[in-house]
Amino acid sequence: MLLTLLPVELLIEILSQVSRSDLKRLCEVSKLFNKLATPILYRSVVIKAESEVSLEKSLDTKLLNITCRHSENVLRFTRDFQITSSFHDLTHKRCSRNWDFNDYYSGEFQNEDGDILMGKLEQTIIRFLEKLEDGQLRNFSWELGTCIPEQLLSSYNGQLQAKQNKIESIRLVTDGSCYTHDFVGAPDLTSFQNLKRLSLIGLNRFYFESLWGTFNGISDQLQELELDFVDWQAIDYDPDSPENYFAEEALGMSRKDKICIFPSLRVLLLSRVPFQPFQRAMAYAFGFTHLQSLRLRLCPGWEGFLAHVQRLNSRIRLKTLEVQHTVNCEDSMGEGEQLLTFLHAFDGLEELFVSTSGPSSAVDLWRAALKHGATLKRFVHHQRTVNIDDESAYFEEECDLPDLSFGPEGINRLSQDPSRNPLVSLDLECLGMCCIPSYLKHLLAPCAAKRLLKVLHIRGSGSDALKYKSLIIQRDKYVNNGKECPKVTTKLHHFAEWIFGPEGFPSMKVLAAGDFSHDGRYSKTNVILCRREVSDPPETISGRFYRYAKESDVGVWSLLETYSSALAACPTDSILEYGA
């Protein structure tokens, strides 16, 4: 084999670019490759639960296998340890020990099975960690949506604090609705003095003291921070209150503070984190000197926060901006004015993802996006509103607004006079719009001569697809394309024929339709189409100019991965639910 003649350093570099499945096959045919590839294979250990219903049981078995099956300790190469699960079906009370607050105090609480399952998993994880050398791990992720075993992360006997305190990146997806936190305390992160990246999802107010201790020690070195409270009630948020418990207790600030707590941040993602009435103080706290990516999802008071950011007189260096409005029909036209002002205040964005409260002016947002036209490559615009049909079963519930507040007359005006349409002047590679296909054709037709747009995403909230007639798929009708996938509607069929056809976009590679948030939660109502080629076999399920994507379409899946941040931006639903 010619590869074996290469210098070892070059061979290792080549092997590091090979997929895990191919690496495993190479290990089976060559002792040399086995020796060189094993450190690469075990650098990152990812244990994923097979079932969301029995998380602890399936994880326990997998961890036992990887801990015990090798005669030599291959785990000495491990730097990244991730325990994860999908969040597709079970989004409420995932924790097997989910303690009900009222039942606990009434003496009626009993969940011995949950305690046993969590206890077994806890011991298996400890056995796994005991195979590692002290200070070996650099990244740790717990992405189950459950409480974290006490022996793993606690102030008095946490294995990670005691043995792996050189960790630089921590990601925790926990169950903030579980009252276990009230009695055993939130995970203690104060020992990790090398932290540079921190992601905490599923927080509640019991975390605030731990957060304050963590930030007090390492806030000046944090480069990436993600905080998602999932539900405002979990942090006792009251929009009419002059208090902000997160700002006061977790950040330790007062409303008059002008202190930069996070001077090194490059990436900031906040979801359901309230700013008001601390907008000015929090603008100072999250320093913008180095910030390149800012994502604000359903954060009350975000408008005031951005206004104060502008007044800091710091240069804004953002490459990515995501803003998701809260739905408020009473003031939807005025709600986004601050966003437009902010977009006009700087340039250089490469990604802009916005979910607005409708009805609101789409054209005004697109015109503001033009300020970044020289650099902008990925753009998402989604409008949500409230169902005001009092005869609907979903009266006063949130829903998509796929006409983008235009109506037939507004679309006709833009179609007849493309100079009114700012989209024509944007040179995008990826575009995501929640829009009726026929309207979208009118909006995009003047741009068809451009040879840049590769991926178009027709957005539709997955939760809406379960309630309303879909613009994308025919309910209960499927095609077999290697595996069963939903059949497109006649409207989407005609649109796909146009965009992949001779009058459409010659650069178009992928037309994705549906909701791609939360790693495939709504995959059963999504459709992925690509260009039909002359070389495609005659039995290919397709239209004249398009076909359904197959698992073997490596190029299609590679593009979807490249633009995954745009496809999953502004998710309508949260990763977990805390409601009863």
From TrEMBL:
InterPro entries hit by this protein: F-box-like_dom_sf, F-box_dom
Pfam families named in the record: F-box-like
PROSITE patterns assigned: FBOX (PS50181)
Descriptive protein name: Uncharacterized protein
